[in-house]
Amino acid sequence: MKLFVYHTPELTPTDSVPDCAIAVDVLRATSTIATVLNAGAEAVQVFSDMDQLMQLSEDWPAEKRLRAGERGGAKVEGCDLGNSPLDCTPERVTDCRLFISTTNGTRALQRVQAAPSVLAAALINRQAVVNYLLETNPETVWIVSSGWEGSYSLEDTVCAGAIVDGLLASSSLSPKELAGNDEAIAALALYRHWQDDLLGLMHHASHGQRLLRLNCHEDLKYCAKTDILEVVPRQKEPGVLVK
Ligand SMILES: O=C(O)[C@H](CS(=O)(=O)O)OP(=O)(O)O
Ligand SMILES: [Mg+2]
User: Fold this and answer.
1) TM spans, by residue (predicted)?
2) Ligand 1 pocket test: which of 102, 145, 151, 221 has the largest number of ligand atoms within 8 Å of its C-beta?
3) Which ligand places an atom closest to the C-alpha of 108?
4) What ipTM does this complex have?
């Protein structure tokens, strides 16, 4: 297995696809996607464009449909939900399809949707994703950080490092054998430095500070937890993820 880390979707190669692509958006899209599927949602369908989301979801039975829209960290007018994983309770989401569009995470997932295997990872389901990789053993793996509007994000890179660390803990590979690029080694170092204070890292991160200004303290605390869910969101058709 060779694992490559990319800091934003735009940095991924355009002339190849990996055997397995993992989109990471710890704050908050992939934390929300893992949480909503774990809570019993039928599926999550991701959109980079809000108008397309509203149009396409119109054909879905209203009682089985939830629309989640976020722009600038806040809920989009006309949607049922924003992008907080804390709103994804079983009472609210069971058997529903979540149609979601966010600033960064949904774009990352669309960027890699041509890969044979596409997963969504966050800190809350890191070990479940590591176990899935160990079971399926893909030859090439891309971990694609969503970043923020095309720039680097600390929290997504630390999650990439947590996945690398989890793989190393359960395999005989050395970092040099596993890492396909320098970014993978750097992500591992970042995780090993912050693994005991991931919430502290979030408070340093520009994205975390943005959410704190929006009073999303509880979102940060939740998204900073590690390995609390065993769900692995997997793409079953382009843009549609199930557990
Ligand atoms: O909703 C979020 O947390 C972010 C937007 S912002 O950085 O908080 O403004 O969207 P995401 O697509 O989850 O990065
Ligand atoms: Mg984000």
Assistant:
1) none
2) 102
3) 1
4) 0.96
The residue whose CA has the least distance to atom 4 of ligand 1 is 73
- pTM for the model: 0.97
| Closest ligand to the CA of 24 | 2
CB atoms within 10 A of CB 171: 15
What are 129's two structure tokens?
């994703």
Half-sphere exposure of 202 (CA within 13 A, CB side): 24
Which CA distances in Å does 84 have to 16, 31, 66, 118, 219? Answer: 33, 9, 13, 22, 7
Alpha carbon nearest to ligand 1 atom 12, residue:
104
Beta bridge partners of 45: 99, 240
CB contact burial 9-34 (16+ within 10 A = b; e otherwise):
beebeeeebbbbbbbbbbbbbbbbbb
Q: Which of 95, 135, 143 is CA-nearest to residue 119?
A: 143
Nearest CA to ligand 1 atom 5: 73
Distance, CA of 150 to CA of 141 (rounded, Å): 21
